[in-house]
Write a structure and sequence with these properties.
2 strands, 2% strand, 176 residues, DUF4145 domain-containing protein, two-stranded antiparallel ribbon, mainly alpha
Length: 176
């Protein structure tokens, strides 16, 4: 969901338990894994955009929108490259974020191709669901980490949780 170039995510609750081991469960978990990967990617957009603001002279709404659009077009890998230089954290954290990128790329481009043999048996589908569940947890973990970083920066500039919650309420009212 986008409002004034700031992504507001609807967070999933805990990772659900599968209701069965049929094909549609694999698709459902794949969808949730894709969703959480996208949330992580948009968290990187928000962080990269936040860091980019310090390097730019933003005077108009058009400048703001153009910068956001430029950052938002970047791939997960390019976003990670952008924030690496500004994110003061350990090499271990950066390596784990790189692993999340690799998992996201595999999920988006090769997951079903690589897993097709498993998809045709109940035990294989169970393995796939477990694997997808681990990816969901991984993406959620790093989404929350990155969100914590940019929210802390935003708070330093007056964009508090209360302001964000008011915007969410406005969005809900507009879409009711």
């Amino acid at each position: 969901m986008v409002r004034d170039n700031t992504y507001i995510k609807i967070k999933p609750k805990e990772v659900p338990e599968p209701e069965s081991l049929d094909e549609k469960e694999v698709y459902a978990f794949f969808g949730l894994a894709s969703y959480t990967a996208q949330c992580l990617e948009k968290a990187l957009v928000n962080l990269a955009f936040t860091y980019s603001l310090t390097d730019k002279n933003i005077v108009t709404q058009e400048d703001w929108d153009a910068l956001f659009e430029d950052v938002n077009k970047k791939t997960f890998g390019r976003l990670l490259g952008m924030v690496k230089k500004d994110l003061s954290t350990s090499d271990e954290v950066l390596e784990e974020l790189k692993q999340a990128l690799d998992k996201r790329n595999w999920l988006a481009h090769d997951y079903f191709f690589d897993s097709i043999g498993q998809f045709h048996t109940e035990s294989g589908r169970m393995t796939m669901i477990k694997e997808l569940t681990e990816m969901i947890k991984l993406f959620n973990k790093w989404d929350q980490f990155i969100e914590g970083v940019y929210l802390q920066i935003w708070q330093q500039h007056g964009l508090t949780e209360e302001v964000i919650l008011r915007e969410i309420e406005k969005l809900k009212a507009e879409n009711a």
